[in-house]
Amino acid sequence: MQAQTMECQIASLRAEVDRLRERDAATREILGVISQNRDDEQPVLDAITRNSVKLCDATGAGLWLLSDEGDVTRLESTAQAENSENEVVVSVGLEFPFETISAMGRCLVGSRTINVADIREDPYYLDGDPVASKLVDKVGIRSRLVVPLLENGTAFGCISIIRTEVRSFSDAEVNLIESFARQAVIAIENVRQFKALESLNAELTDRVDEQVGELERMGRLKRFLPAAVAETVISRGADKLLSSHRALLGVLFCDIRGFTAFCETAEPEETIEVLQTYHEEMGRLINVHGAGVDHRMGDGIMVLFNDPLTCDDPAGDAVRLALAMRARMAGLSNKWKRMGYKLGFGVGVSLGYATVGMVGFEGRFDYTASGTAINLASRLCDVAEDGEILLSPKASIAVEGDFWVESRGELSLKGLREPLEVFRLTGGPERKKIGH
Questions:
Q1: Angle 43-47-51 (CA atoms, 0-180°, nearest 5)?
Q2: What secondary structure letter does DSSP report for 121?
Q3: Interatomic CA distance for residues 60 and 50, integer angstroms
Q4: At 421, phi and psi to the nearest 5?
Q5: For residue 235, with 0-12 CB atoms within 10 Å meaning exposed, 13-18 middle and 19 or more buried, which class applies?
Q6: Integer CA distances (angstroms), 263 to 33, 176, 386, in order
Q7: Nearest partner of 385 among 354, 328, 344, 340, judged by Cα
Q8: Could you report the per-residue pLDDT of 133-148, keeping only the tens digit for each?
Q9: For 66-170, where are the alpha helices, taking DSSP H only?
Q10: Please, which pLDDT band fits residue 359 given cuts at 50, 70 and 90?
Q11: pTM across the whole model
């Protein structure tokens, strides 16, 4: 009897391990689809609904988005998946007026998850709503889970999964679909940003009719660029700004120490949450410090000062941003440490001339910079230890009147023929004033 009980426990554990492996594989599949489809969210939404049906043993799943048509708010079906044994319940593209009494309506109004064990006991059905009656009596829906898609705490869509038997969705299944909802939001926002930037790049290549379209264009630019950068584009003209030219730049590179090792052991959701927090916090500081352009890839960020926005002290501005970033990352690192994440932060700053302008090909252009100053800042960031801000010789000379710096010795950096003396920032302007 005891042996039989143990065998049942082992079988149960194996089944649980299999379920966890399936969910991990589904999450990785969705993240892979997100990375491969920057300009189209549909493959991601299809993968999410398909895996929702599979992993929750559901009859069907759908993803719905709110849309406004004049004074009428409507719900549109953007992705659907059904168990292979069932007929299609809802077609993609179906629309109907938004209401607030159904499970979906309550989910969207309250921006919260709704888990209905038996729709026949739901007021939506008991009050005799014709749509509810059709879903229950003709389609045969019994249990339903609706999870909101949230942007700044407000629902703009939802994932709905159903069963044709009375079987409430478990907490584990609810958590899974909520994680899928977060991934759907990321995919939709990625495509929105990609299309916005694509539209911006197309618009910037044409001359603007200043007398007719300047105000309208300014409004559009401010959606994608800092206001000061947008104003510079207008005042100097897109052709002049975007054409290749040389500029003296203060260049800042930064990234998270230990991020690669963290990604190897962390869950995909943890990785996304860390990256999202990091980029949000660093992005706010970049805007506050008036940087002209920033580029991001993974945990790496490049920030340029003195183009397209000119400034009097590009190296000093880059160092001031580096100090603000380090201070903010210290707080984030302490928070992550309590969660078991060993993550740090390093920065490299250089000063020098670089070639700046649009690069790419038709339909895909980026405004970026290239040259020794860019490569040097990147290499300094690579060798910076946790909490270090390393400066190139030119950057060090430019800021030594306002900041404390010390030599870190000569280092052999990738891409440079000879060893280069590198400097470490040891104190900010407040400390410099006290020292004098």
A1: 175
A2: G
A3: 9
A4: -75, 130
A5: exposed
A6: 18, 20, 18
A7: 344
A8: 888 888 889 999 999 9
A9: 103-110, 123-126, 130-133
A10: low
A11: 0.49
CA distance 331 to 300: 19
Contacts made by residues 368-375, CB under 8 angstroms, sequence distance 24+ = 368/293, 368/295, 369/247, 369/249, 369/251, 369/293, 369/304, 369/307, 373/249, 373/251, 374/249, 374/251, 374/302, 374/350, 375/415
Q: Crossing angle, helix 42-55 and helix 2-36, to 10 degrees?
A: 170
pLDDT in tens, 374-409: 999 999 999 999 999 999 999 999 999 999 999 999
Q: What would the two tokens of residue 230 be?
A: 């947008």
| Whole-number pLDDT of residue 249 | 95
Question: Among residues 78, 27, 85, which one has the least CA distance to residue 52?
Answer: 27
Q: What is the pLDDT of residues 212-240, one digit of tens each?
A: 455 555 554 454 455 556 666 666 665 55
Please give the backbone phi and psi of residue 32, each rounded to the nearest 5 degrees, phi first: -65, -40
What is the C-alpha to C-alpha distance for residues 112 and 99, in angstroms, rounded to an integer? 16
Tokens of 379: 């290499």
| 107 Cβ neighbours under 8 A, 6+ residues apart | 113, 114, 146, 147, 148, 155, 158
Neighbours of 400 (CB within 10 A): 14
Tally of residues, the chain? 436
d(CA 245, CA 423): 29
